[in-house]
Amino acid sequence: MTDQSVMTYVPEHAAKDHPRVPREKIGVLIANLGTPDGYDYWSMRRYLNEFLSDRRVIDYAPWKWQPLLQLIILTKRPFTSGAAYKSIWNEDKGESPLMTITKDQTAAITDRMNDMFGDRVMVDFCMRYGNPSTFSKVHEMVAKGCTKLLFFPLYPQYAGATTATANDQFFRALMKEKWQPAARTVPAYFDNPQYIEALAKSVEAAYAKAEKTPDLLVVSYHGMPKRYLMEGDPYHCQCQKTTRLLKERLGWTDDKIATTFQSVFGPEEWLRPYTVEEVARLAQEDGKKNIAVIAPAFSADCIETLEEINEEIQESFVEAGGESFTYIPCLNDEPAHIDVLSQVIADNLKGWIG
Question: What do you get for the CA distance between the two ends of the chain, in Å?
Answer without folding.
Answer: 30
